[in-house]
Design brief:
single chain; 136 residues; alpha+beta; Glutaredoxin; four-stranded mixed beta sheet; 6 helices; 4 strands
Length: 136
């Protein structure tokens, strides 16, 4: 095979490989907040401060679908599949990074309960940082 043909084959191979790399779907983030029917002030603050964080810092990503946010009652039958998937019990906050077919879950519940109600600024800063980390 001549040098010209080898070069052409190599260029075509590089373009195909880079096309596959660039064709990958962008990273998405699913945020799911679970709650029970009866909710304490801390549980309510987790939902409120999560919404505040998303609307303040990630409004564009919410609008374009890069980030989704769901609030689900663990006691409702229609949510059973999601409750089982996340093994949610009562109030729980999860972030799920979706890269292609791979999903990576982060359980943010303990952090949320530690800071959302009494140190809202710390909760919002921590959630913002976790979201930014997951979008990379």
């Amino acid at each position: 095979m001549s040098i010209m043909k080898k070069s052409l084959v190599l260029i075509m191979l590089i373009l195909q490989v880079s096309g596959v790399v660039f064709a990958q779907k962008p990273t998405k983030l699913k945020i799911v907040y679970f709650h029970s029917e009866r909710r304490c002030p801390t549980c309510i603050s987790i939902e409120d401060n999560t919404k505040k964080t998303l609307n303040t810092y990630f409004a564009n990503q919410l609008k374009d679908g890069t980030i989704t946010f769901q609030v689900l009652n663990v006691e409702e039958e229609k949510n059973l599949k999601m409750v089982e998937k996340y093994k949610a019990e009562g109030s729980s906050l999860f972030l799920t990074k979706v890269s292609g077919a791979k999903e990576t879950n982060t359980d943010f519940t303990n952090f949320a309960f530690s800071y959302s109600r009494n140190q809202a600024d710390k909760f919002i800063a921590g959630l913002k940082a976790e979201i930014e980390k997951n979008l990379k």
